[in-house]
């Protein structure tokens, strides 16, 4: 039987490392490069927000995650289980911030490069079968995301039964924490929209669909369904 220390270490490391295989180097997490320029998502999301969001907010999660993991390794080497347990909230929060934002950047693309366009295919059929239409899905996601108390994320996921689902997570919690596979995330933290939309976050939720990279979402859906 695995020791309590070993089980805990595996849990926190899996939380921080999940879905990050291409964003680490020599054991350290790094902020992934964007596939587009900061201004490509305008007027939906301004270049100023993108630069702050990517270079400052995401970078802070990565820096704090690396520090917390280094402390975790030190605690493991000393056999200090109490210190490992104390580090779990920092690793979960910053690891989730890193994972969630890494997905978010890939979920976006400028309108001139296909943003907002969901073409015929398996994902579109699944959305229409479950929600009736893409417009109806957007309404469900926007409604649930607008209902978040405080900060968090709205998600289109594949649930443990292999069905499309819409869920929200608080703060930087990840859908994988509840057994869901994330396909599309909408960042509902104020730093994601406030400079452009002030307190009218409903407009942000409405407009972000114009820059959703449905090719990326469809790819994630295909990968998720291959597990069922």
TrEMBL record:
Keywords: Antioxidant, Metal-binding, Oxidoreductase. The keyword Magnesium does not apply. Destroys radicals which are normally produced within the cells and which are toxic to biological systems. SUPFAM superfamilies: Fe,Mn superoxide dismutase (SOD), C-terminal domain (SSF54719), Fe,Mn superoxide dismutase (SOD), N-terminal domain (SSF46609). This is Superoxide dismutase. It comes from Coemansia interrupta. The keyword ATP-binding does not apply. One of its GO terms (molecular function) is superoxide dismutase activity. Its EC number is 1.15.1.1. Residues 121-220 form the Manganese/iron superoxide dismutase C-terminal domain. Mn(2+) binds at residues 53, 101, 187, 191. Belongs to the iron/manganese superoxide dismutase family.
């Amino acid at each position: 039987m695995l020791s309590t220390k070993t089980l805990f270490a595996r849990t926190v490391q899996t939380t921080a490392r999940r879905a990050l295989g291409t964003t680490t180097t020599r054991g350290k997490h790094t902020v992934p490069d964007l596939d587009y320029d900061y201004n490509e998502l305008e007027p939906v999301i301004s270049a100023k927000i993108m630069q702050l969001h990517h270079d400052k907010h995401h970078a802070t999660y990565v820096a704090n995650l690396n520090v917390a993991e280094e402390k975790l390794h030190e605690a493991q080497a000393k056999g200090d289980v109490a210190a490992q347990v104390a580090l779990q909230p920092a690793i979960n929060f910053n690891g989730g911030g890193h994972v969630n934002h890494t997905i978010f950047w890939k979920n976006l693309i400028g309108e001139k490069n296909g943003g907002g366009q969901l073409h015929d295919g398996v994902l579109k059929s699944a959305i229409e079968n479950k929600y009736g239409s893409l417009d109806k899905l957007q309404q469900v996601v926007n409604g649930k995301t607008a209902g978040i108390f405080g900060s968090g994320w709205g998600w289109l996921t594949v649930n443990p039964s292999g069905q499309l689902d819409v869920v929200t997570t608080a703060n930087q919690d990840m859908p994988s924490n509840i057994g869901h596979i994330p396909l599309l995330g909408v960042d509902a933290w104020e730093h994601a929209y406030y400079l452009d939309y002030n307190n009218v976050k409903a407009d942000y939720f409405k407009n972000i669909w114009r820059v959703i990279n449905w090719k990326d979402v469809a790819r994630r859906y295909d990968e998720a369904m291959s597990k069922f």
